[in-house]
């Protein structure tokens, strides 16, 4: 999944970007409100992690413009503004959740996962198909009842495929789940992770649709 991190403080933004990428998310990090608005116009995101105190254009203006365009991407505000009026204003402007700095990283990740599940319309965060079962909330995977350890990148490829068996995703769509816009992408990155998943979960689980992309077999 691809996230937009809007944070002007490098002491927070850099480790947070590393943490999210380590969890398997593709992350675009911008430090100004105007840059956030440009990114949101140019790209589709699964979630926005938004600071409010930004140079040039503050986070509330970013949020209001986003909602004015009827974009329903989940927004998690992460800010030091702890007044009740600020929290109420943020939620009323269209934020889906609000967490105060300094925050616990485990709590932030849990809130983020909850918003992603909610936006996907999943009450129970579990996918199961052809004997493969994954739980995005706990990052647990099993095949034929046996635990399987996946890397963060393997997870990022498997989850969107297993969520919609039979639906073909192009290599470009899968690359967007793996990388932010400034990341260097090797020409065979997706193929490498698909190969690793086949070795761990079975050669027939993920099918190559020639010239189009990949899908999880229907049966």
Automatic annotation (TrEMBL):
Keyword Translocase listed? The answer is no
Which InterPro entries does this UniProt record tie to the protein? Answer: CheY-like_superfamily, OmpR/PhoB-type_DNA-bd, Sig_transdc_resp-reg_receiver, WalR-like, WH-like_DNA-bd_sf
User: What positions does the domain OmpR/PhoB-type occupy?
Assistant: 124-218
Which positions make up the signal peptide?
A: none
Q: Which residues carry this modification: 4-aspartylphosphate?
A: 51
Give coiled-coil spans as residue ranges.
none
- Pfam families found in the cross-reference section: Response_reg (PF00072), Trans_reg_C (PF00486)
Q: Which domain of life is it from?
A: Bacteria
**Residues annotated to bind DNA:** 124-218
Sorted alphabetically, the keyword list is: DNA-binding, Phosphoprotein, Transcription, Transcription regulation
Protein name stated in the entry: Response regulator
* Residues covered by the Response regulatory domain: 2-116
């Amino acid at each position: 999944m691809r996230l937009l991190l809007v944070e002007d403080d490098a002491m927070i933004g850099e480790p947070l970007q590393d943490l999210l990428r380590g969890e398997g998310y593709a992350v675009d990090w911008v430090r100004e409100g105007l840059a956030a608005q440009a990114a949101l116009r140019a790209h589709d995101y699964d979630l926005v992690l938004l600071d409010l105190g930004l140079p040039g254009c503050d986070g509330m203006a970013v949020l209001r413009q986003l909602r004015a365009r009827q974009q329903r991407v989940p927004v998690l505000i992460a800010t030091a503004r702890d007044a009740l009026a600020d929290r109420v204003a943020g939620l009323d402007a269209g934020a889906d959740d609000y967490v105060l700095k300094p925050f616990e990283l485990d709590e932030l990740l849990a809130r983020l996962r909850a918003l992603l599940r909610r936006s996907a319309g999943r009450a129970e965060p579990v996918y199961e198909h052809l004997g493969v079962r994954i739980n995005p909330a706990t990052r647990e995977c099993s095949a034929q009842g046996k635990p399987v350890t996946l890397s963060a990148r393997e997870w990022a490829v498997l989850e969107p495929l297993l969520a919609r068996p039979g639906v073909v995703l192009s290599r470009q769509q899968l690359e967007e789940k793996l990388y932010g816009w400034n990341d260097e992408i090797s020409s065979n990155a997706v193929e490498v992770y698909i190969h690793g998943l086949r070795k761990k979960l079975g050669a027939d689980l993920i099918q190559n649709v020639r010239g189009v992309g990949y899908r999880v077999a229907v049966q």
